[in-house]
Amino acid sequence: MIGAVGAGLLGLLALSIPVGIVLFLLGFGVDTFFSSFPLSRGLGNMVWSSSNYATLIAIPFFVLLGEILVRSGVAGRTYAALDRWVSWLPGGLVHANIATATMFSATSGSSVATAATVATVAMPQAEKLGYDPKLFSGAIAAGGTLGIMIPPSINLIVYGFLTQSSIPQLFLAGLIPGLALALAFMAVTALICAVRPELGGQQRTFPLALMLRGLIDLAPILVLFGLIVGSIYRGWATPTEAAAVGVAGALLIAAFFRGLSLEMIRLSLLGTVKITAMIMLIVLGASFLNFTLASAGLGREINAFLEGLGLGPLGTILVVVVLYIVLGFFIETLSLMVVTIPIVVPIVLAQGYDPIWFGILMIVLVEMALITPPVGLNLYVVQGARKTGKIGEVMLGVIPFALIMLAMAFALIAFPQIALWLPGALN
């Protein structure tokens, strides 16, 4: 059954059928060929029960928040301000790409939205200032992945929803690994450009007065982050309520910078509807597929397979890491999570691992999937913003950053406190 489902998944995706539809079709296929009961008769009730959770309302709110910040011009101001502060490093403006992605990750909750935001603002600068297109675009694609690690994160919300884990605890656990990844991205960029200065373009410095004035443009993102995350951790708001507060804050910021208009609101709402519809179709399709797979006994098959390997906890988690890396080549990230979580998480927890820790490890592995071909969404988002050159350049550019993510995954396995220290300290 595992082989048949995998082959069906790859075959349908190769036909360019939308992922959500593919998941429903696979669910019907499992029901038809591997189940002795007509599982699809309960499709209506299953879809309703899967979507009838208040936690999921946070998703469109966070998407809308990111849309408002992008379309009101806040993104451009943030990028210009960070350019003044980090372009003196070897690699110059590449560091501004990573720093801007980090800041927008703290408000948007979406990697694709973060990558699209930074790419739109940054790409016009690459050729004008003589940057290597591979490193420049690769840094944007990799920096965008931080959108699902640094809180608030849509993917962490989905993980918490599917595993019944504490979303505030997941947000706390993702903060240190997310910031560590951002610093590691900047460090590897500086190292590459110190060895080969021609890749990094021109290092620039700005007067201190101009740098200090730029802090005004960074303040809105910091205020929003404090407003959203602080209200959750202080117990003043649930993640859903905090997302709504964030949208209100984004509207006020847009009005303050004179970026608020009826057309901006219309475009933001339209973008939110499109992205949310895509996410929810995937979630519902995966829920139906998970239901049919569990009913057909896939969980028992995987458990029997792992038990047959005779591996201990470390061996099991390493097999899981390899599984996610391989699947990440072919499956879109949110789909990868919702399809595998109900199967993999019980196995991991049975080995004595913490669900909050595993959620962060999974997010690191899913981040890699965003920048590994052939289905790495951030690769195509950045290439779309470039409008010139070949996507192979973007794929080559992300290699150093993908290796950093792999190193972070092994660091989390070796030192779980990287993720668990902050939740434990604040508790």
Q: Count the helices. How many?
A: 21
Distance between the termini: 43 Å
* Strand percentage: under 5%
Q: Classify the helix fraction into a percent range.
A: over 70%
> Helix- and strand-based class?
mainly alpha
Summarize the structure.
78% of the residues lie in helices and 0% in strands.
Explain what the structure shows:
Residues 9-418 form the TRAP C4-dicarboxylate transport system permease DctM subunit domain. There is one protein chain. 78% of the residues lie in helices and 0% in strands. It has helices at 2-14, 19-34, 43-51, 58-71, 74-86, 93-108, 111-128, 133-144, 154-163, 167-195, 208-233, 239-256, 262-296, 298-309, 313-328, 333-350, 355-370, 377-386, 391-397, 399-414, 417-426. The longest helix is centred in the middle third of the chain and has 35 residues, at 262-296. The radius of gyration is 21 Å and the shape is globular. The model has no long low-confidence stretch (mean pLDDT 81).
Throw out a few tags for this protein.
cell inner membrane; about 425 residues; mainly alpha; globular
Which SSEs are present, and which pair or pack?
Layout lengths: L1 H13 L4 H16 L8 H9 L6 H14 L2 H13 L6 H16 L2 H18 L4 H12 L9 H10 L3 H29 L12 H26 L5 H18 L5 H35 L1 H12 L3 H16 L4 H18 L4 H16 L6 H10 L4 H7 L1 H16 L2 H10 L1
Helix pairs in contact: 1-2, 2-13, 3-13, 4-12, 4-13, 5-6, 5-11, 6-7, 6-8, 6-10, 6-11, 7-8, 7-18, 8-18, 8-19, 9-16, 9-17, 10-17, 10-20, 10-21, 11-12, 13-16, 15-16, 15-17, 16-17, 17-20
